[in-house]
Amino acid sequence: MSESTVTNPDAAPSREEAVSAMFAQLVMQHTNMAVIFLGLSPNPQTGEVTRELDHARYFIDQLEMLEIKTKGNLDKHEQALLKQSLTTLRMAFVEAVNHPQPAAAPKSEPPPASPAPAPAAAEKGTPVAEPVNPGEKTAPAQADEARKIFSKKYS
């Protein structure tokens, strides 16, 4: 073995090694933040699992920007780390959009009101439309909204 391939573990890392380590740390920080906001990991400060897809998309977009701006300037390990992180996050994001979390019921929800008496038109055989709460979304509207959240195309 030549001396150039053997490194002294007590020696300070070279500038290139330090920069490579900082790059890997940056990629991992952004990946971890995206994972937290995708609801795949609890927030380390609160211990709660939350899903905020806009925040997750922000961190994924930043990693994509790093990939574009560093193209051709990364060693194979840095490039592999960034590519693997982005692939994993993109798949998790699509999964989160396609399977939204069920809405948590409010803790102090009043009991449902008894149904109102049927209108006179219903007695005559005329169909009556059910009242719709303006703030309540229907299932197709929720699905359309979920599709709109993830509109970025990856090639």
Describe this structure in words.
By secondary structure, the protein is an all-alpha fold. It has a domain at 16-99 and 146-155: Methane Monooxygenase Hydroxylase, Chain G, domain 1 (Up-down Bundle), CATH 1.20.58. It has five helices and no strands. The chain has helices at 15-37, 53-69, 76-98, 120-123, 139-149. The model is unreliable at 116-124 and 126-139 (pLDDT under 50).
Give the secondary structure arrangement, pairings included:
Elements: H1 15-37, H2 53-69, H3 76-98, H4 120-123, H5 139-149
Helix pairs in contact: 1-2, 1-3, 2-3
Give the structural class: mainly alpha
> Which fold does the CATH topology of one domain refer to?
Methane Monooxygenase Hydroxylase, Chain G, domain 1
What CATH architecture label of one domain applies? Answer: Up-down Bundle
Q: CATH first level of one domain: which class?
A: Mainly Alpha
Any low-confidence stretches, pLDDT <50, length ≥5?
Answer: 116-124, 126-139
User: What would the average pLDDT be, to the nearest integer?
Assistant: 76
Query: How would you sum up the major sheet?
Result: none
Q: Using the alpha-carbon principal axes, give the shape.
A: elongated
Binned strand content: under 5%
Query: Rg, please?
Result: 26 Å
Helix content: 40-55%
What's the total helix number? 5
Brief summary of the model shown:
With 155 residues, this protein is mostly helical. The protein has helices at residues 15-37, 53-69, 76-98, 120-123, 139-149.
